[in-house]
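Reviewers asked in the last cycle whether our approach scales beyond single polypeptides. To address this, we selected a multi-component target totalling 771 residues and predicted its structure end to end. The input consisted of the following lines:
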Amino acid sequence: MRKSMVVVEGSYAVAHAVKVCKPNVISAYPITPQTHIVEDLAQFAADGEMNCEYMNVESEFSAISALIGASAAGARTYSSTTSQGLALMHEALFNASGMRLPIVMTVVNRALSAPINIWNDQQDSISQRDTGWIQLYAEDVQEAADMTPQLYKLAENEDILLPAMSCMDGFILSHVYEPVILLEQSLTDEFLPAYNPEFVLDPKNPMSFGAFADPSTYTEFRYKQEKAMGVALGKIEEIANEFKDIYGRYYGGLIDGYVLDDAEIVIMAMGSVIGTIKDTIDVLRSEGESVGLLKVRSFRPFPRDAIRAALKNAKVVITLDKNISIGKNEGALCTEVKACLYNTDTRVPVIGFMLGHGGRDIPISMIKKLINKAKLVEKGIFVESEYADLREDLA
Amino acid sequence: MKLVIKTATKPGSTRANKTGAWRSFMPVFDHKLCSKCGICAIYCPEGIVFKLENGYFEPDYEYCKGCGICANECPKKAIKMVLEGK
Amino acid sequence: MSLLKPGHRGCAGCCDALAGKFVLDAIGEDCIVVSPTGCLEVFTTPYPESAWGVPWIHSLFENAAAVASGVEAALKSLGKKNNTKVIAIGGDGATLDIGLQAISGAFERGHDFTYICVDNEAYMNTGIQRSGATPLYASTTTSPAGKVSFGNPLHKKNMPAIIAAHGSPYVATASIAYAPDMMKKVKKATEIKGPTYVHVHAPCCTGWKFESSKTIEVGRLAVETALWPLYEMENGVVTNVRKLKNRKPVEEYLKMQGRFKHLFTMEGGLEEIKKIQAIADWNVKHFGLE
Ligand SMILES: Cc1ncc(C[n+]2csc(CCOP(=O)(O)OP(=O)(O)O)c2C)c(N)n1
Ligand code: SF4
Ligand code: SF4
Ligand code: SF4
Ligand SMILES: [Mg+2]
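The resulting structure, written as C-alpha cells, was:
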C-alpha cells in the first residue's frame, strides 16, 4: 500500500471527493445504497468542513429541482441518488439538461422495482440514457472518486454546460473498503477552476430562463445539446489527461483497452465488472488465449469512433449488460455497439450477454463461460443476445 | 436570431409583440369626465394605461387588447368602449 | 411602466397578468421569480420573448417551491442573498395539487421566500379542467355539469390553512380585485423572514365564462358575498380580516359566471345553491366577517 493511501469505504471516498470540489449547494434524499455518501457529506457540513448549503429535501424530485434553481442562480451543485430515486427525477433530468445546468450527481447503480431489490445493476442510469446527461461509469472506488472533479470540469466547460452523472455500482463499490488516495484539496484547487457562468439569475441583469419554445426553435435547442455532447466527447480524454498530470492517475478517457491490440475475442463492459474481467483475462492470457477488454467509460456521449477503431481487428465481440430493454431481449451496450459498427467495414459478430441483474454475482467462472461461448462462433453457433446467468430451476 | 442556450431570454422583450391588433373594441377616454383617480391604470392587465403630463390617463393603443376592464372600473364612466374602425 | 411588460399573450382581461403585475410592482426589481408551468408562465415567455422585467425561471409544473428553495440556498451560499426576494408564483393546480409536496418541503425547511398562489380555480392552461381549488358545483371540462351532475362535486381545498399548519410566519388571502390590499400583503410577506404565503383569488374570464371587462367586478363579488374572505394570519393566528358591510347573497356572484349557469337552469339547481350559500355563511362565522 502506498503511503498516502487510506482504507475507507467507497462512499466516503466519493463524499470526500465532492467536498474538495467545494459545491455551494448539496441537495439529496436518502436511498440505499447511496445513503452513506449523503450521510458523510452531512457530517462534513455538520463539522464545518464545507462552506455549503446542505438541503434535506422531501424527495429526489425536489432534490434535483432545488439544484436546478441553485445552478441557475450560479451555484456549483451536487446530488446523489439511485434506482427509484433516479426514476423519480426523470422529468427533471431532461429539464436540467435542456436548461444547460452543469449539475453533477453520483448515481450509485441499483436495480429497479418491481420486484423491489436494493442490489446492483445498471438499469437505473441506463434508463436515463436519453435525458441529455453525460454518463461516465467507474471501474473502482478510486475512479469513482476521481471522476467527481473531472465531471465538474467537463460539465462546467462553457462550450459544454451539460449535467453529468458519475455512475458507480451499488454496494460493490459504494460499500467496499479499499485502499484509496483521498483527493488532495490543493491539487483539486489547481485542477478545477471556480464556476463562473455567463448567465445567472441576477436582479442586476434580469434574464428569463426556461422559456416556452414552439416548433420554430425547439429543434435547435435539442441540436445544441447534441453539439455540446460532441464537445464533451473531445474533452473527456483531455480532462482525463489533465487529471493525470496533476494527480498522477489515469483510467482511460472515453474508453480504455486492456491487452486489446492483438485480442481476437474482445469483451466490452462498464463499471465494476471490469475488475473481474481483467482478472479473468490475466488467467486466460497466461494459458495462451487471445482475449482482451474494451472498457466503456463514457456511455454518454457515446464514443462511436473510438469503439470502431478499437474493434477493427476483433474476431468476436462480447458485450456485458447489467440492464435489459424488455421487449428487445438485449442490453443497451449490445444494441449500441452493434449499431455503431453497422456502417463500417468491420464485420464482427457481437454477442450480447445480460447478467448481474438485481445484484447477482458475476464470478470469474462466468466470464470464462462466456468467452467459451464466443469461441463457438467459429463453429457457426451464434447467439444474438441472452441472459447469461439464468437459474434454470426458476426460469 | 442567435439561440441563447439555457433558453435564456431578454427582460421585457414581449414588447416586440403589438397586441393592439387583437382589439375589436377600443377604449376612448373622455377627459372632461375624468377625476384623475388612476383606477384604470391599476386594473389594466397589460399595464399600458399611463398618466399624461396634464394628469389625465390614456392607454397605449399599440398594446391595448380592448378587454374593457378600464371602462368597467372607471368610477366616473369616463371611458367608452367603441367598436374598432367606427 | 410595470415590471411585467406588455406584449404578453394573456387573454384580454386576464387575471393572471394582473396578479403578476401587482406582485412585481409590490416588490420591485430586487427579486428572483420562479414560475411553474401554467397560463402565466406560457403567455409571458414565448421564446425569444419574455414579459418579465426581473430575473425569472420556469422549470416544471410541480417543482416551483423546490426550485425557489434552491435559488434561495444558492444566494445564501454565494453570499448574494442580501435583500433579494425569492418569489414563487404558481397557479392553483401547481400549488394545491401537483406541487403540494414540494411546497410542504420548502415551508418545512424554512427558506426565506414567498409563495404566491394565483388561484383561478382550475387548470386554465390546459383547457379549464378542475383542480383542488375548483369550488363546489363549478362546471369545468373534467367536471362538467350534465343531466345527472351539477358540476364539480367537491369542496375547495383550504390551502392557506395547510400552509399555516406548517408554522409559516405569514399567510394571507388576497384578491386581484383589491389591488392596494393585495400589494400591501405581498410586500409584507416578502419583508417577513422565512417562508410566507399569499393566496390570491383571480377570476378568469375565459375559464369562468364571463365578459373580459368583468374580471375585477367578479372578483369583488367573491369578496362581497363572503365566498372569498380576505384575511391575514401571523404564526397560525388570524390577525386581520376585511369586514363586510353589506354582504350580498351568493347568487349575485354565481349568476355572472357561465360555469355556474346550470344552477339557474337545471331542475333542483336553486336548492343546491343553498350549499354554496352555506359556505359563505361558514366563512362569515369562522372569520368574523360581519
Ligand atoms: C407533470 C405535468 N402534468 C401535467 C402538465 C400539463 N399542465 C400544464 S399547465 C397545467 C395546469 C395549470 O394549472 P394551474 O396551475 O392552475 O395554472 P393556470 O394555467 O390555471 O394559471 C397542466 C395540467 C404538465 N405540464 N406537467
Ligand atoms: S378610472 Fe376613469 S376617472 Fe379614474 S383616471 Fe381613469 S378615466 Fe379617469
Ligand atoms: S381596454 Fe383593457 S387593455 Fe385596453 S386599456 Fe383598457 S384595461 Fe387596458
Ligand atoms: S385562460 Fe384565464 S388565466 Fe389563462 S390567459 Fe386566459 S384569462 Fe388568463
Ligand atoms: Mg389555475
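Chain A has 13 helices and 16 strands. We regard this as preliminary and will revisit it once experimental data from Aim 1 are available.
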